Amino acid sequence: MNSGLLMSGWGRRLGKSLMKGKQAGPPDEVSRRWNIVTGDLVKVVQGPQVGQQGKVLQVLRKANRILIENVNVRKRAIKPKMDGTPGKMVSRPCTVHYSNVMLVDPITGEPTKISRRYLEDGTQVRISKKSGHIIPKPDPLVERKPRSSIVGPKDTAPADVFEVTYPDYEKLLPLLYSTTGKSSAI
Predict the structure, then answer these.
(1) Strand 88-93 to 101-104 pairing
(2) What are the strands of the beta sheet with 41-44, ordered from one edge?
(3) Is the pLDDT of residue 107 over 60?
(4) In this structure, what DSSP letter does residue 136 have?
(5) Tens digit of pLDDT for each residue in 39-95?
């Protein structure tokens, strides 16, 4: 006997609304071979942004999407804050599906497919199918900006680092250095 025939109308609607949440989510097919990494120069070959090229800022492998600098830029509103900072409109890049972009050949400057080969020393490299030249992977550490070493008004001065400013520090010393964590000093 089919249980769907015996279900009431509200039960069917409830079941459909519960299934709507199941349909949304990450795609079932996640690509296993990624030839594009952060820092690569890519060109959009399909979609509304055809012809635009830029550097890859982020690779979202679970969603099969890529964030590219100055490609698919959209305006976003930032709300005013409670401290009096006014709101503003900001242009931010949005993601593009990875199947819509191709790596740019460093020799010809055109989009190209990639093959993988091994060098004599055993390292795996990406080879352009158009020109046959190696496309090097960008160094991720070069792209990062160093932290600011400028001392500001809220930073602790080097001379004050080891100064004890807690008034009951002497009382807590046995707790800090005991093996059991309990002391009769308190």
Answers:
(1) unpaired
(2) 95-97, 65-68, 53-60, 41-44, 101-104, 111-112
(3) yes
(4) P
(5) 999 999 999 999 999 999 999 998 899 999 999 999 999 999 888 889 999 999 999
Tally the C-alpha atoms within 13 A of residue 44's C-alpha that lie toward its C-beta.
Answer: 21
Kindly write down the DSSP assignment for every residue of 18-41, as one continuous string: HHHHHHSSS-S---S-----TT-E
- Six-digit token string for 155: 């930073």
- Return d(Cα 137, Cα 126) in angstroms, integer: 8
In this predicted structure, the answer to whether residue 151 has a pLDDT above a threshold of 80 is no
CA dihedral 144, 149, 152, 154 (to 10 degrees): 80
The answer to whether residue 186 scores a pLDDT higher than 90 is: no
Task: Provide the H-helix boundaries in 3-113.
Answer: 3-6, 9-23
Q: Structural domains in the chain?
A: 41-140 (2.30.30.30)
SS3 5: helix
Write down the pLDDT at residue 181.
53
Pairwise CA distance, residues 117 & 50, whole Å: 29
